[in-house]
Design goal:
Length: about 110
């Protein structure tokens, strides 16, 4: 269905790495577009220690049909051992936008 747009959220250790992954997925037509957001401070536990690190979030926009392939590719390109790559639940998209996303991911 054309209104089934999927959003994928991921964070990267540098803005440049986020940029490179976005460009790769665009070239491979796994996404229609992405929003690179301002740097955030992420707090988490890793190897038993509480950490706080600067990270660079990206929201990828694709079709529901390509979401799993896009998530797999993001994870493969990511340097983290356990990258945060999350498909967000969304409702129907504006029809014109959904049609554009579908056309860009063919």
């Amino acid at each position: 269905m054309a209104s089934e747009v999927a959003l994928i959220y991921a964070v990267f250790p540098t803005a440049g790495e986020g940029h490179d992954v976005v460009r790769t997925l665009l070239a491979e037509r796994l996404i229609a577009c992405a929003n690179r957001l301002p740097m955030v401070i992420s707090h988490f536990r890793w190897d038993g220690e509480i950490e706080a690190k600067e990270e660079h979030p990206v929201i990828f926009k694709t079709t529901a049909a390509k979401a799993q392939a896009a998530m797999k590719r993001i994870a493969a390109l990511h340097r983290y051992e356990v990258p945060a790559v999350i498909q967000l639940s969304v409702g129907p998209a504006h029809p014109a936008f959904a049609i554009w996303v579908a056309a860009e991911t063919v």
